[in-house]
Structures are given as C-alpha cells and as structure tokens.
C-alpha cells in the first residue's frame, strides 16, 4: 500500500472535491517548481535531495505522504521538519506564511518506509493560524510539529543582533578545513558521505576536534537548486537546513570530533522563528553557539543572516550529547 497507515474510508469520502483541488494545486505548484529547478541546468552537479525532501503527495483530508531522500541509517530530522511544515501550510487558506515552528523528535525514522503526515487545524484567524502536524511510520508516531502562520503586514522594525564578522562565501574553499578525507574513517561517513543533500555549505570554522575551543561556529548555506520565489518554500528549505549544523557546536569546548566512537549525539527538539523574507537561492550566513551543556544534554542557538546583515531567522535546539559505554554509537 502507498500509505504507512491506511486512510479511513469515511473520512476520505467526506473530503470535498473542491478542497482536494485547492490542495492539489498547491502541491503541484510546489512540486513543479522544484521539478523545474532540477532540469534547469543551473548548478547542474547538484544532487536532487532537496527536491525530494520538499515534495509531498496528497492522501486525503489533511493527510500527506512524504518520501525519504537521504542515504542515511535513519530519517534526517530536517527533512521531517520541512515536510511537516509544508503539510501544515497546505491546510492554511490565503497568503499566510509560517513565522514559527516547534518540533519534537520522537522515534527513529525508517528510511525504507513512507512517512504519513496528519495535520490538525488548531486555529484559523484573519491574521494568524495554528497547525499541528504529526508524522507516522508503520502506525507509530515518530515526530510532531506545531507551527503558526501569519498574514504579511507592515510593522515596527528593530534588530538587536548584528551579523557576525565573516568572509564572503565566494572567498571560502568548497572543502571544510580539517574535514576527514580518508573514506575508511567513520567520521568521513558521518560528515561527508551521509551529509543531508540538496544544499551547499561553505564552512568558515574548521572541523571539530583537537584542542578545545569556544562553542561558536559559522558557515554560509544556500540551495543547490533554484527554489523560485514562493516564501513558504524558502522557509521549509531553511528549516530543512537548520538541523544540519545545530548540535556540532556542542562538541567544540570539549575537543571532541565525530571520530570519537563513544560519543552519542541525537536531536530532541527544535524551535525556529522566521523574522523576515529571504532568498535561499543566495547565500545566508549561519552562526551557532552552545548556550549550555549539562545532564547529558546540550542547548544551542543559531541565527541566519542575509548578505546585507538582516536577521532573517533564529533557531534553538536541544539534544542528547553524552559519552556512551559502547563505541560506535555516535551519529549526528
């Protein structure tokens, strides 16, 4: 069967054809835009992971199917966030776009199974709407997300945080300094071969490991495929990317790297706020910092800035960061 959990026939029967048509129109717009970028010829060596990660299939009233796009032992958390956010946005009428999300990672996702998303309509307002999306595989809930959507409006403007100093992305090498190149090194598999696809990182700070250093990291990111001009797509894509650099910064003050075989690092929850519109076709600067580490957990904060220094998004994440008794448990 297509679904990991079958759709209730009575519920499916009550879905109006006009509602399905509206949702199919949105999904077709999302998928066609991403499909066009794949065949556009620009950045032709880009993998197609982002296109797959942002694609959904309508499966009934407020039900959607996501496919896995990563060659990893488990489903990438950023993919779950991006797909859940798009599923939630597909049930919101009008021009409202996401301004915040809060997500919890439950069970490990199986890359061999489809992901069934169910969306609850918590609130529909003229200015704000709230949605709750849950992801299931094989009848088990593996992930949940709540998101709030706002109709665009004019308002007061202020920004307390200035963008951190950073060289231009064009002046940085495509290969991260200190990154493992030996394909037999487990760290190479974790950080390179199994890195989530679809976007291009340009790291400013070197690979973790060696002497302890402050818990701060910087990198530039952009989509490897043009995303068009739909602001909701760009928000979902940035949510997808934000999970990638989050917890690595927690290793720096302790001198750990991904080669530490007795290190376990797992995301627990993630929150994100979208402050301003941005263009992920161009580079965004990401700055992350370790705020606190205690009790086998680490709490990190990250900020995204555009080239002009405008703060476009902020995220926080807490995760398990612990030394295990068994070697080989580490996986980002």
Automatic annotation (TrEMBL):
Pfam families in the record: 4HBT_3, Acyl_CoA_thio
The organism of origin for this protein: Sphingomonas montanisoli
Record keywords: Hydrolase
Family, per entry: Belongs to the C/M/P thioester hydrolase family.
Acyl-CoA thioesterase-like N-terminal HotDog domain residues: 72-150
Keyword Hydrolase carried by entry: yes
Residue ranges occupied by any Acyl-CoA thioesterase 2 C-terminal domain in the UniProt entry: 214-320
Name the record gives this protein: Acyl-CoA thioesterase II
A Gene Ontology biological process term: fatty acid catabolic process
GO molecular function, one term: fatty acyl-CoA hydrolase activity
GO cellular component: cytosol
Keyword Hydrolase: yes
